[in-house]
User: Fold these one by one.
Assistant:
Number 1:
Amino acid sequence: MAEVNAMMIRAGCNFVAKNPVLDLKRSGFGMPVFGRTVWCNRRTTGRVGNGVKAVMQVDLEDAERLRRLEGLEATLGLDIVAERELKEKGFLGMRKTKLVCTIGPACSAIEDLEKLALEGMNIARLNMCHNSREWHCDVIRKIKKLNEGKGFCISVMIDTEGSQIHVVDHGAPSSIKVEDGSIWLFTAEKFEGSRPFTVQASYEGFSEGIQVGDSIVIDGGMATFEVIEKIGNDLSCRCTDPGLFLPRAKCSFWRDGRVVVRNHESPTLSRKDWSDIEFGIAEGVDFIALSFVNSADPVKHLKNFLSTKPAKSVRVLAKIESLESLQNLEEIIEASEGIMVARGDLGVEIPLEQIPAVQEEITSVCRELNKPVIIASQLLESMVEYPTPTRAEVADVSEAVRQYADALMLSGESAIGSYGQKALSVLQMASCRMELWSREENRENFLPHYQLGVSLHDRIAEEICNSAAELANRLSVDAIFVLTTQGHMASLLSRNRPRPPIFALTDDDSTRMALNLQWGVFPLRIELSEDIEANIWRGIELVKSKGLVKQGDSVLVVSEISPARAASMASQSIQLKTIV
């Protein structure tokens, strides 16, 4: 018990031990454990209320107490894929890295969406650069139908187009191959349909300052053209690097090995972006990812705007895809509720060889600041056309998992590729294998801890979660259960990357959907009351009734009741329980 006491002392509390004799080795987790309770009481003043109570309890309770509680007919809302994975692989076999799929023409039918869901999709991403408003609305409603009717728990993210003006479209509904030496006209002229070897640009002044001899790089290198003639505001170009040309592709202009600096100012959020955001709010999306965020200001602006809306809470993510965003990285992460590392566009702005180190740095800072991070762009790019990935792509995916990224994202692989389901399967298998290796190497023990909390209440919550994760690892518990209203304690536990899965029990639907992005967190729905003990017992009994835990399993329970719920008392606790 010296180790247990030492870990609890980190919260700076005074402990009183009751029934001081406890032999963990002799008792084991599958047998009754009696008589050791460690209590910590602190009084705080101010906005938190009259007090904060931190509790660690090692005890065995009578399950009959819970059976007398009402409301046990409630549904848990655990994703059926996670439930299946738990039953087949056990607690430690559950995949903790989350998977995001971009939805496009190749997977927008409800049958295809269900296949992706069954393969492990946690979040469906809709890129507002593509397709019509009606199309997006139809996809969102299909996903909600799968959630409600099939038992999935899939969150929805929309991705704003952003202020990048260099968007070009060849007019075809799908990708086309550009041949070496072919001549193409890039024009700002607006016309319906498509014309042979003609590309529409999204901005009338796209060719301003561009010279003959400059290069146009499509989607970070998918294809390259050289400007051979300027015809008014149009550009006649020759393909110098053949490749795949996607609909509404992004392009950048290069001169002498460097990106051409354009002398124009445009807001991060365009008029179209605001319209798309209003649409997303009306349709009840869970995340909004802002494109081309260069400072914290647009993130704060959007969050302030969302706070005025009566609809459910929507989380704001920032996409890191420019040199300027890297220069303001920490302030952007602090302002956001998550980060997407858009490596494709970022690779246009910085040298290619810097991408791996920058990715690792962003991932590390996000974990330090307790913000989820998505690694995106070209994870399995070859699978847009081919049924198997390259070994280098698998190594790239595994490296992102090794860095403890919260989520991996498919873009064109799922949106327009012929093998989206297979690509998702590759992410799933690679993630599970690398997570197993990380556990075997005890890599979570080498993760540094940085204090986030400023107030006493926040610092205690942080220390409780740090200690809970350490206890869970040292005592080899089967699972961690956290009762949380807004998801804060669940995210603090996730930040520690513990070995057991984290089951977050909440009564707030927006919190439940937001936790889909957190590493190792599996959100469940349960009615919570102000009685912490009743909440704990109700949660355990519901999980037990589903067959997700069995006799002899040991679970660490971390509970949180916010000051708003508990009137003048805010409470957090840690309890170790054995299922009987």
Number 2:
Amino acid sequence: MSTLQFHSQPQSRFESDIRFASSTSCSFRPRRNFTLPRRFRPRPLSLHSHSSTSLRPLPRAFSNDPAVTEKPSICTADELHYVPLPNSDWRLALWRYHPPPQAPPRNHPLLLLSGLGTNAIGYDLSPESSFARYMSGQGFDTWILEFRGAGLSVQASNLKELKQSADAVSEQIEAIAKSVANEVSPQKQPTDVSGYLSDSEFYFLREDSIGIGTAWDEAKLVAELTEIFMRLSERLSGFLSESQSRLISTKLLDQISKLLEDSQLSERFEEVRIKLANVLEKQQNSVIASQIRDLSQRLVNIIEGGQRSVSPQFIDIQERLSSTIEDFQKQLDLIVKYDWDFDHYLEEDVPAAMEYIRAQTKPKDGKLLAIGHSMGGILLYAMLSRCGREPRLKAVVTMASALDYRCSKPLKVLLPLADPAQALNVPAVPFGTLLAAAYPLASQPPYVLGWLNDLISAEDMMHPELLEKLVLNNFCTIPTKLIMQLTSAFGDKGLCDRSGKLSYRDHLNKSNVPVLAIAGDQDLICPPEAVEETAKLFPENLVTYKLFGEPHGPHYAHYDLVGGRLAMEQVYPCIVQFLSQYD
């Protein structure tokens, strides 16, 4: 591997005479064109109609153009585009930053990929520190992808619904920040931190409990129980495996069993429970559906019989059953709503965005430059591993990314979520909500959770206002299925695909794409040694490893590489130098 040398003094944002001081060099041989599968060729989605004689409509959902509707207030890009995800109602948000007229001309667009559970804001915290603005100022047509479930990416079936959903997300993000910013006492918890989960969804992050529900409605309960068991019999239309379906149905029946403390009712319930379990094992058909409804009716009748008992333990039992069923239904909905993993990003989100950007910018060789921070860099590594010598990428920069995280102590708290049963109990982790709730305790005396700041930024490396914006606005909800796959990075094989058979480390030695791997000296989440070990997997003449930070300071933690006070002077010029050589 080679190392980079760069100027320590600030460079002009529009400096065109950029010198690359590394000995790294690479020659590319012409290769045949690579075409993505048809399912990865999205058509542009536009929120607005434009009267034009052009054969091609303006391919953007929002724009600063005064003739069209304003972007959501949270979006600070020049334009906001939406890319339809094939075979899905997801619309992926792409923030676009145009180069100014005085910037040096470039041959390739630049794609930025964010980290786990983050949106585009981390790349554009403020005009003074914005990584996206800096890169566009250096001439790169810069695009930030927000993965499904992050930022302004929304599920919508039409243009009106898309705009409403995007505006709602924008208002929600701003409301969270405003709520925490108004906190005065460090002991006082935020009063309205809803994150990306509703109150009913957040229920499943608490210990299981049975509350008091609505009035007893036998017909409604029979219908709801029937629907739940029918969905489990269908295995939630493919969302659950057979073993997962068995686990979650057992959980519901266990909760109902707790309500029936009378021995006589318990015996009657066990009889129905056994029959239900047998029915759920069978493939669904009209006969099975009828059996499920009959058993649901019998179950409700048992509960109703207990209600007529004068025994005190049966007071409100029907209402409690209603509440149990309602909460369980919400959990099933959450499992369906947050049903994606790392490979979904790799196989669907990133290819759809790349194809869209190519269609808009038309680079002559059909290639893009790409930069990924944290999980964004991991995705780029996985692409290079899977696509071999034809990933349609001209050059790649990764920041704080690795494929083996065994040396990362903070991330090991995620390991309990690798249990498939936990993915059913907690289908999604409202990471943004939890960070926002913890922020007052991390940023104000007596700094009970002050250690959280060290995971994000090294001491004195990020302005307090920018750190607050990052914590309160940049993070979102993470599906447990995504976390489960990422925990494979703690195993001997490193990060693997969802089947566990393919290690993304295996084929990096065959890549022909130049890579700059950047690490921060005080990054506790992705330690420098993890970054360097992954870099060593590439051909030596194509990879450059750069460590930022000095023994006596300044130091770089996980997010200082993209938003720290010295990043614009030290990190950003280094990246421009590298990309310029291959652009």
Number 3:
Amino acid sequence: MKKICTTLWLQFFVVTIFAKRIPTTLDGPFEPVTHRFDPLLHKGSDDLPMDHPRLKRNVTSFFPEQIALALSANSSSMWISWITGEAQIGLNVTPHDPETVASEVWYGKESGKYIMKQNGVSVVYSQLYPFEGLWNYSSGIIHHVKIDGLEPETKYYYKCGDSSLAAMSDELEFETFPLPAPNKYPRRIAVVGDLGLTSNTTTTIDHLIMNDPSMILMVGDLTYANQYLTTGGKGASCYSCQFPDAPIRETFQPRWDGWGRFMELLISRVPMMVIEGNHEIEPQAAGLTFQSYLTRYSVPSKESGSTSNLYYSFNAGGIHFIMLGAYVDYNQTSAQYSWLQHDLKKVDRGVTPWLVAAWHSPWYNSYSSHYQEFECMRQEMEEILYIYRVDIVFSGHVHAYERMNRVYNYTLDPCGPVYITVGDGGNIEKVDADHADDPGKCPSPGDNIPEFGGVCHMNFSSGPAKGKFCWDRQPEWSAYRESSFGHGILEMVNSTHALWTWHRNQDIYHENSHGDQIYIVRQPQSCSVDSKVPSHLLQRDSRLSPSIPLALEHCSCTSILSC
């Protein structure tokens, strides 16, 4: 009887599993699927006011606020950043002296016992607009401390602040990542972009927190501070429409402070890795750019050999992440390209099998918004990423969701990366619902001019759209697209399989509900790195030969279950 029951249970388990089988990229390329915007939903929502409980300042004097974690280049270090003092905004502002408050982190492996201490640096920045009637801004004191010598896969408890002023934070905690290895990965990685500070943003972040990530990949456009007019304190979905006579595109810098407070509950415990978007450019009259972004957040640029916080790399267990800058020179003669080439040559796929890249502006995009906007960047950088077998690329910018079939140079290719757009975090500019292949929605070549770089708009030279600027149907390289706000979760199963799940905001209260789900499968035997690397891009290095665990070396399964 027991044997019969066991057999029946196994049969039920197998039937249940295969009835709900999750597809893999080995099943592709997939026929394109479109889920259009649900008219029962709102395309956008208003910005949260600055006196909203999650945005307003809730500390006094020089107590820390806006506490944020960021990974260093490896698991033995962690960056901790925070702000003390009150920012100033008005016609005349006087910057704080950053030397007046110390930058200390006290930490240990037991709650309440902080046996280690590390000091760091403190800075301030100003956003200045020397135009009649416009307000200037000077930040609070921004602190950055890097703590070293951490043990992998270990929980640490910490406080930050200035002990001499008795101004320390409450106890917080974080857990370090595993050392780089082909069988060690972060538990769950959240991917989100184009957040802003709207009611939709709160739903996105609340949903993301429910999914309990161990790391956040933020693919640009954090605060949308430049959707405000400083003298009006008013948000707008279209800045140029709302403020046509503004002498410069101002930014309401207190939104950065509000965003830091809004995110603190999450990113004071879970590291957030950021890359800049166009809304972080924030030009000042003196020609300065990116001051808020560069000053507020720590990234492992120096640790990864970069000379700029606008591009860098890091390891997270068996994943090597490359964070590229779309708004800094990316030409093949640029410092960024030279750094990228050097970084890719150092990657050891036997230690970090997964290679994941991220930048703000997507190369593959079938929506009307930002269509072919960063074609120049694609033409400069796509080849080297393909040659080194980047597995997944995340971008934002387009305020909708789209996942591509594996593609290279607009051609379906089983060794190309899986490109995913997740610019649907909930910002004030509303969701993008028009596709370039919809009747009458194809942009003109004069539209979608990038805020940095050249214009390389082109007609397709082959395939079903040959001779045309836009397809007349969903492109074959676009596997799934949906106009909805949300976020994604990436879970590494092993050195060849990763589960990607995109969660719609409207599914927050529906258990086990999601918009898109697929296993992304690497094929290192048929898509090896050094099989196609030209001599001018690769000096032969044994570390580039993929090292695959024996149990998976000959695995050609279409489901993780059969591996």
